[in-house]
Predict the 3D structure of the following.
Amino acid sequence: APFPLIHSTVEAEALTVPSLDAPALQRVFQMADELSRRAGPGALFRLVDMQCPLDVAAMMWDKLNFYPALVKHPEAVNGLVEKITSLQFAFLDEWYRRYGVEFIAHFPDYYMPRGVTLSVDEIGAVSGKMFLQYFLPHLNRFSERYGGLGIHCCAHARHQWVHLKKVTGLKLLNISNAGAIVGEAYPFFADFVAQWNYDQSLVPLEPLEWMEQVPSNAHVVLDIFANSREEALMASEQASSWNDRHE
């Protein structure tokens, strides 16, 4: 179907939830089944790139009508979000039944023994009040249902950081932004969650320059780029030396 699929609250309320037999979803499972057959039972899948329910609603609904509806027609928005959530739960339940609960996150590529990972980008376009209304309850539902949550966010959402700390069972937070905002994230979330952040404006910093930005109580993954084996070995030695001095 062409996007946007929805142009009014009437269309949102009339939308029905497809079953897992829908052709688009069946193609996903058919491809995954074949990959699973070829790779064998020990291979881990990377989870499909799944947006949180409100993000999906924002993609389906004409933006000129969607944003006013967040304020004027919350019942219609919540109804659509609930439909999206029910389909996502059905899909994930079947995915984990077929391929197991262990997986590699959709982005970036970290291991999850269980849980789910979601992209949460629409939070940059709404207020903190709307985060608490439309995002937090559903994020917590995903986390509680599947035993943990990883979040990727590439929105400019500094105003939502205090609310992200209310998400239960958050295992890793990935903030993908350009600018000093990533440097601010390390201390802000240091006592709350592991971080794997991207900031293209900081490349190419030397390994020690990366590490000097990280508080000692933070648990982070750092990307260190090298153009040759020699550069990689030097970066590894510098990082080891830095760790020895700061233990």
The chain has a mean pLDDT of 91. Residues 74-99 form the longest helix (26 residues). The beta strands are 103-104, 111-112, 116-119, 149-153, 170-175, 194-195.
